[in-house]
């Protein structure tokens, strides 16, 4: 479900008039999930019906640098620094709740000059996967659960993060999982968040306190993948802005604090028949269908090769550690939170699988695209899953890549994912992540100074 279904440009203009909007934030999610774009006056936005930004804006690292001397990247992105044409998706138009003047924000799709979608743009990659489902007469349904940390302001990156001070005047120092009182410590912030989300139509559901100090989770109502990816993209911006208003930070880093659990984006996923609306994961007698098992088989077969997309940074792999509330392998099980792929207890129509491997730091468009791609391959290739795990999967061997270089090697070598997600996307994405890892390797960590400076 999109933010506003079936909205045309005419509908959007009427809506902007009704809200008396004076300027529009024209947004495009880049490969890191950062919002790029321009802010336009209302008149210019309506007159031009689009804008241009350099193609290379989508090919930057999280630090703003560009790969050089990478053959795949050079083939994919023009050396002449040509423009992309960005066109607004009217279904995503919504207000900017924290703006002083009436301001709207709208997500744009990226096009080449000849009218083709830019194939390595995150929304384009997800659209590509969704078309494969549509061609089979299937409609995937997803429901993300997004974990994040609230922290005290940290203006010196050399200092560790600390839990924020709540209304009691004290910061958390102990585990407060599912504590209502711990959430109430930050009532003014969450009241603003719910008001903002309501104004934006983000359809957030449950808010809970997670295991870590200052760690929370927000759940989204299930729906159509592109619309849900848009909502997660908007929510990340919204939460950061609301936190700043209350003199704290909100972070979606996978592992922001040593000694605390990491943050995930668990994604519940099912598939329905487009013509009947029935869940294809269930047979007529109510049992799990062969397609359900094949979907899990696809997740098991391809998710290790997709790890660089769902765990996109060096920091991401600090989360994938045994006995830290994160999966270390590709096992699956019924209502088992230690496995990579959990099957919740459910009815016939809502039978689903939860991918617990994805980090909160993943680009939501790419994360949904790749987990759906893995399941799709499992169904079309009729891949069978391993036997179900009934005990703790933490006691089993590690089956996921343990670092970004290993993950990138697997991604580049997986031809089936390359064919589904797109050659140019894989080339651009892998080149960017290679450069980010190279940049990380130039930094000396506190651990190295503490343990190596005087001892080796």
From TrEMBL:
Kindly give the Pfam families that the UniProt entry links to this protein: Gln-synt_C (PF00120)
Which GO biological process categories is it annotated with? glutamine biosynthetic process; polyamine catabolic process
Q: Which GO terms describe its molecular function?
A: ATP binding; glutamine synthetase activity
Q: Where is the signal peptide?
A: none
Specify the GS catalytic domain's residue ranges. 122-456
CC cofactor: Mg(2+)
Keywords in alphabetical order, please.
Answer: ATP-binding, Ligase, Magnesium, Nucleotide-binding
Q: Which family does it belong to?
A: Belongs to the glutamine synthetase family.
| Protein's UniProt name | Glutamine synthetase
> Where does this protein come from, organism-wise?
Duganella margarita
